[in-house]
Write a structure and sequence with these properties.
about 150 residues, mainly alpha
């Protein structure tokens, strides 16, 4: 199940002619996207790209680094704040593995049920799945989680 934010991200990417790159299996399959590793492989096969593309990447590198740093801090904050017990882990596994909820959809469901402020934050959903998977001795980035 896709979250409404997932649907908007997919729509924006398709309208802009972008290649959709994500680790989230549910979202990637819905959008016909690829993993970051596949994106790197495609870039290598394509060569170095146009000079315009290289200039744009150079210009954006500082901004992308700042965004990545902020994302990492937010992820770590969620890891400290979010706690998952076995009953919650069972529900998270049901939503993610059995019902194919995206990370955002898992986060929004728990935000709604627990009256937490994160809404459909993808990083919160990743942490919920990570902590739930650990209770099953599984990796949330590997099948059947992703």
């Amino acid at each position: 199940m896709l979250d409404r934010d997932d649907e908007q991200v997919i729509k924006d990417a398709k309208e802009g002619g972008a290649i959709f790159v994500t680790w989230d299996r549910v979202l990637r399959l819905a959008a016909g996207g690829i993993t970051p590793y596949e994106a790197l492989d495609q870039a290598k096969k394509a060569g170095t790209g146009t000079k315009e593309a290289q200039a744009e990447v150079s210009r954006l590198r500082t901004h992308l680094t700042a965004l990545a740093d902020a994302g990492n801090k937010t992820y770590e904050s969620f890891r400290q704040y979010i706690e998952v017990n076995r009953a919650s882990a069972d529900l998270i596994r049901l939503l993610r593995v059995e019902k194919d909820y995206s990370w955002r959809a898992v986060a929004r469901w728990f935000s709604w049920a627990g009256h937490t402020p994160w809404g459909g934050n993808q990083l919160a959903g990743m942490v919920l799945c990570e902590k739930a998977a650990k209770l099953f001795d599984e990796d949330f980035l590997q099948p059947p989680w992703n």
